[in-house]
Amino acid sequence: MLIGEVSRRSGVSARMLRHYESLGLVRPSGRTGSGYREYSAEDIRRIFHIESLRSLGLSLREIGRALDDPGFTASALVDDLIRQTSDRIAAETELLRRLRRIRSAEPAGWEDVLRVVALLQALGSKSADARQRAALSSGEEVPVPVEALVEAVLGETEPNVAGALRWALARAGDGGTALLAEGLGSPAAAVRERAVRSLAEMPGDEAATRLRGALADPEFAVRAIAALALGARGVADAVPTLIDMIVVGRNDTDAADALGALATDTATADRIATALADRLAHDITEAPARGRLTQALADIPGATATRALGELSHDGDRAVALTAAYLLRLREAG
C-alpha cells in the first residue's frame, strides 16, 4: 500500500508518516519499481499502535521504547503516565483557580491584573510580614478576591497575620460567609476554629446562622468561640455553651459577661439563672466550678437569680455560701 492510501486509511498525514520514518518508528517494508514507499499490513498495524500510544500522551521517544524494547514494562509506563497527568491536572487546576480569582476582582486593565497577581503572591508568601502587609493593603487599589482571603485565613497559623486577614475579609463584604461555612465542615479542628473566628467578625444574619451551627461542633474550642460571638449578637442559643465554658474555666469571665449581656428581658434572665442553678444543684462537684457558677449569677437580674443566690447562701460549700451571701447584699444595696 502506497503512502497516500496509508494516510487516507489511517488518518495520519503523509508528512507525519515520513517523520515517523525519519525517527525509525516505522519503516516501509518495501519499495515499488518506481521507488515509492510500500507499506505492508504489519507496517500499518504498527502505525495504528503508534497513534494509540500517542493518544495516551506518550512522546515519540517513549513510543519507540515501548514498541522496540523487550524489557519495557507496560505497567510502569502507565503508572508514570498517571503521575504525569495528575501533576499536569493539578497545575492546570491551580492556574484556572488563579485566573478566576483575577477575573473576580474585575480588573480594568493590565495594571490592575498585575496588582492582583502581586497581592495573591504576597498572600502565599512564606514571610509572615509579607502576608500581613498584603492583608492590610487588600482592597486599597483593586478589589481583593474573596476566595483568596478565605483560603489564606483558613490556612494561617500566625495570630497577627490571621487577625489582619479576618479584618480584610470582614471589609470585603458578605461574599466570604458561605466560603467560610465550607471551612466549618473541614475534618481538621484547627481549620474549623479559624473558620468560626472569621465568621465571628463577619456581619449579617447569615454569619449568625453559621455560628449557630458551630455550637454543635465536636471541638469545644470551636463551640466556645461561636458561643461568645453569638452572645455578643444577643442570640440566646449560646447559653448552654457559655455555661459549659464557666464550668470548665475556659474564658469563663467572658462567658459570664456574655450571659449578663443576654439577660436583657425577664424570660431570658430567668432561663439563664435557672440553668446556672441547675448546674450547681446537679452537675458540679468541684469547688472552683461551683464558685464560678455562683459568681456568674451576679450579673443576672431578676427574682429567679436572687432566689438562687438565697439558697446558695446556705450551701454546704463555705466559699460558695460566702460568695452568694455577698452577692445578695450587693443586690439589696443596689
What's the quick description here?
Residues 1-69 form the HTH merR-type domain. Helices cover 72% and strands 1% of the residues.
First-to-last CA distance: 110 Å
Gyration radius over CA: 35 Å
- Flag low-confidence runs: none
Strand order of the largest sheet: 1-2
Protein name: MerR family transcriptional regulator
Organism: Streptomyces spongiicola
Domain HTH merR-type: 1-69
Keywords: DNA-binding
Verbal overview:
It comes from Streptomyces spongiicola. Keywords: DNA-binding. InterPro entries: ARM-like (IPR011989), ARM-type_fold (IPR016024), DNA-bd_dom_put_sf (IPR009061), MerR-type_HTH_dom (IPR000551), MerR_fam (IPR047057), PBS_lyase_HEAT (IPR004155). This is MerR family transcriptional regulator. Pfam families: HEAT_2, MerR_1. The protein has helices at 3-10, 14-23, 41-55, 60-68, 74-104, 110-123, 128-137, 146-155, 159-171, 175-183, 189-200, 205-214, 220-232, 239-248, 252-262, 266-283, 287-296, 303-312, 318-333, and strands at 30-31, 37-38. The chain has 334 residues and is mainly α. Among the domains are: 3-72, Multidrug-efflux Transporter Regulator, Chain: A, Domain 2 (Orthogonal Bundle); 238-334. Strands 1-2 form a two-stranded antiparallel ribbon. Strand 1 and strand 2 (37-38) form a beta hairpin. Helix 10 (175-183) runs antiparallel to helix 11. The protein is elongated and about 125 Å long. The protein starts with a helix and ends with a helix. The mean pLDDT is 89.
